[in-house]
Amino acid sequence: MSEQTDLSEYKDKLEWSLFFMRLGVFIVMFAWTVDKFTDPGHGAAILKGFYFIGGAGETLVMAMGVAAMIIAWITVISYSLKAAKTNPADALRYE
Question: Which of 3, 57, 80, 85 has its CA 20 to 30 A from that of 36?
Fold first, then answer.
């Protein structure tokens, strides 16, 4: 029975680790998206310096920010709807 307890503790730690990793990725992606709106010149410089895409204007960078925000909202809404339609009994069946 001791092994079962150890596995349960390991699973809890893994779940928390994955949660904080996802939270960190979300914060970075959110900051990049906000940066495209607050300082589009910086986004254009990133495109030129790292991706060798010169001549990207501020309008293009802001459009990329809008596209990133729309993709994020679609993703969150679709997963939320999927979770809302799931029967809790079916989810618990595999736990």
Answer: 80
